[in-house]
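Re: the 158-residue chain
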Amino acid sequence: MTDRPVQHRTLVRVLLAVLLASGLVLGIWAAFFPLGFYESFPGFGRHWVSADGPYNQHLVRDVGNLFLALSVVTGVALAAATSMLVRATAAAWTVFSLLHFAYHLRHLDVYDGVDAAGNVVSLGSMLVVAVVLLLVAGPSAADTDRAATATGTDAPAT
């Protein structure tokens, strides 16, 4: 293995599992049942996607496919649990979650108070999970080697 195992292994695995479960549920629902996703996401009688514009099967399926692609990478990161892979996965989820969250923060006017709060809490939570994962994944062996080279010290054994 060219990358040492991540620190905080249990927390990292829990955070990866949360992202994986979320990605699979959303991905399967949107990719394979796009109209149902559009009409009834997030469920429980709420309608967050349909409130934001007309149905577009292509875009809903693409969102599902994106979540499934993130899920594949997340599953591999969960299985391998190396710093570099976990950090790359966390960075991808962070970029996606930050931009998704920012969009919805600017468009809360299409929702009532409960749905607006639900959007902020659910999307903000996913962003927090991704950022915490990025922070606890630890430096990769390459980072450690670069730091050791820069300071003239030996890198710790992996």
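The beta strands are 42-43, 46-47.
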